[in-house]
Design goal:
24% of the residues lie in helices and 31% in strands. The chain is built from five helices and twelve strands. The protein binds glutamine. The site of glutamine has 11 residues, from helix 4.
Length: 204
């Protein structure tokens, strides 16, 4: 199976951790919740889940994750930020607040869909995932929007308001919650990124 032999960490400070772990396991990879920076040793990839970015940012700071996450990114380990996780990974956030990890070359607008549209679901086309012509049911919850992308950033999905999924090298970014619909294609895509950059160089 695609995920065999791959370990994906999920930052387990706050937010939708369990759902990501279940998706990882159903792709055949090993999923581990990460509560301390030392837990990052040996992961092949890391997911920063959705939740509340100000809260996650404070906990990232408090538990000493800021430098650990930056060094993970600098080592080329794939990191996937979903929703609040995207906000933490973005280098620029409009109306900036608190601690951010600042790795991916995008600008993000928080709560970009407005207060009256708290959450919604929409079928979107995601380029590059398996069976890409089949729509992906995306769940948006007080979602951010990617409003600017750096030169090397690939846009993977848009809605009428703007970009909702992108990839900047080994950083994957989604404004929605791919762990909530039972469609594993985006998790498989990320596990594949992790497999390809596996430090051991072993084809699994
Ligand atoms: N709007 C939230 C924030 O700014 C993110 C929401 C989410 O992760 N579902 O942190």
């Amino acid at each position: 199976m695609a995920g065999n032999g791959i370990t994906i960490g999920v930052l387990a400070l706050q937010g939708a951790v369990r759902e990501h772990l279940e998706m990882i396991e159903s792709c055949g990879a090993r999923g581990i919740g990460i509560k301390r920076p030392s837990g990052l040793n040996g992961v092949n990839g890391l997911i920063i889940p959705g939740g509340e970015s100000t809260t996650i940012g404070k906990l990232v700071d408090k538990y000493g994750f800021t430098d650990a996450l930056r060094s993970l990114g600098a080592q080329g380990v794939p990191i996937f930020g979903t929703c609040a996780g995207l906000i933490l990974l973005a280098r620029r956030v409009k109306g900036r607040h608190g601690t951010l990890v600042e790795l991916a070359d995008v600008t993000v607008n928080r709560n970009a869909f407005g207060r009256q549209v708290d959450s919604f679901e929409q079928d979107i086309e995601v380029l590059g995932i398996e069976d890409e012509d089949r729509p992906f049911r995306a769940v948006f919850i007080r979602a951010p929007l990617i409003v600017e992308t750096g030169e090397l950033v690939e846009v993977m999905a848009r809605v009428s308001q703007g970009v909702v999924m992108a990839r900047d090298g080994h950083f994957l970014l989604a404004a929605f919650h791919p762990e909530l619909t039972g469609d594993v294609r985006i998790h498989r895509y990320f596990i594949d990124m992790a497999r390809k950059t596996d430090k051991s160089g072993v084809e699994v």
